[in-house]
Amino acid sequence: MTYTETDIVASIERLSGGALAALTQDQRDQLDQYHAGGPQAVNRLLPDLRLTPDMTVLDVGSGLGGPARQVARSAGCRVVGIDITPAYVDAARAFTDTAGLADRVEFFCTDIAALEPIKFDAAYTMHVQMNIADKKTFFSEIARRLRPGARFATFDVCRNGGAEPTPPLPWSLDGTDSFLATADDLCSTIESCGFELVEWVDETAWMRQWFERAAERMAASRSQATLPALLNDGPTRMLNFATAIVSDVVSIHRGSFTLAREHG
Predict the structure, then answer these.
(1) What digits encode the pLDDT tens for the residues 119-165?
(2) How far is it, in rounded angstroms, from Cα 20 to Cα 12?
(3) Residue 126's closest CA among 185, 244, 207, 52?
(4) What is the pTM of this model?
(5) Are 172 and 250 a contacting pair, CB within 8 Å?
């Protein structure tokens, strides 16, 4: 099991030397975005969703909740985040309370298949499907929870060929729970679940630049409280991920889809 961290808020406060509520937004951005690209990746994804303040959005695999809070702040909408790791959900709720967003952002510890099939206005997922072996069922379950015509966006890691990245990685410590698909296969699988393609963009070049500036960003934050510091073997996992991107073993793709209006 890869996601075994516990007492995340206590670890953050120990590393930062202060209370969670005292962190600046820049410091939070170094901690609560459990995906490559940080808040800048969320900004690249947001226009695809075409959100308005009256909408309710589903974040599948919400992690520590950074994207969900960013979406709520940017679009003024409500966001429901779900994740299967209890410690992540607890930390996401604590972050949200201290940010004053508990009235618009909420988190539940559940799998998508167990979530009540209410109809959301939009949904997104960031760096989640790499852990999913049965991707068709995963994206079909997301489709079941969207109203016809709703937007769905994804920002994900894909395999470029037959080679696999070297573990440990942010999503897998030993490779046994890593199920990377090629970009073409991933896009086709999503389409087969009732989604119509709007846009499929290779973001790898941008992601390389983001990793190149990572050390500079961490130094500027002047804090020991960073995401790699919170994860088991975090620095090695991030370095292996960056290496896989630079060596073209993996690519990063951003996708935008619309749920077919005749879909169940």
Answers:
(1) 999 999 999 999 999 999 999 999 999 999 999 999 999 999 999 99
(2) 7
(3) 207
(4) 0.96
(5) no
